[in-house]
Amino acid sequence: MAMLDGKRIVITGVVTDDSIAWHVADQAQHRGAEVVLTSFGRARRLTERAARRLSSEADVLELDVNEPAHFEALTAELGDRWGRVDGAVHAIAFAPPDALGGNFLHTPPASAATAFQTSAFSLKALAEALLPLSAPGTSLVGMDFDASTAWPVYDWMGVANAALESVNRYLARDLGPRGVRSNLVSAGPLKTIAARGIPGFETLADAWGDQAPLGWDVADPEPVAAAVCFLLSDLARGITGEIVHVDGGFHAMGTSDGAPRERVSA
Questions:
Q1: Which letter does DSSP use for residue 172 in this model?
Q2: Per-residue pLDDT reduced to its tens digit, 34-45
Q3: Domains present along the chain, CATH in parentheses
Q4: Which of 6, 50, 76, 172 is deepest in the core (most CB within 10 A)?
């Protein structure tokens, strides 16, 4: 199980130990990797507390993805610490409250732009910051929520995820000649601190119980973390530009009753 033996991996998005990214860090350590986490602001104390709950406590470096200077500092710190980076996990997403919850038509441009910059453009920014330290074989993995469907309540976060999926494809194109891979894991809904911030999250979660052919446990992030570790490993060395769905098969099914959705006349 030491598929990540000797790998040095940067993991963003850990807030508490129920974060998907925390479980990625935990599994990565058990598979032989050395990890550092990133956080910033008031959340950093929570991240540091979660870092102490890993099997081997990880350092937490400062990174606000909307602050270009933080990326410069991250590159310098990792260069001094490791000299190279073998992988990174992008598990960062945010949309202001007025960009979620059924407010799609009335969301102001600034809120939509914030969702895009924080949730999608930041994947490119992270890849760019780590590129000077990335040798052939480096793997970038981002967390996604399937953007092929217009979900209830998800609104501009869904649009940002569609942008994230496109950014992933362009990164695969531009990083591939350097031997660097970029992929996404599209996870089913999980009860994390981030999910609790989405109005109507239970509406999404309930659909999985009805439709995922393998079933889906919203309290079990381990299958998602395992898929991320696979993509970080050399076992996935021929995979890039991909979206791996870890959702119990939900994405491959039609509506739960096989009937078209009702249309409401104006």
A1: H
A2: 999 999 999 999
A3: 8-251 (3.40.50.720)
A4: 50
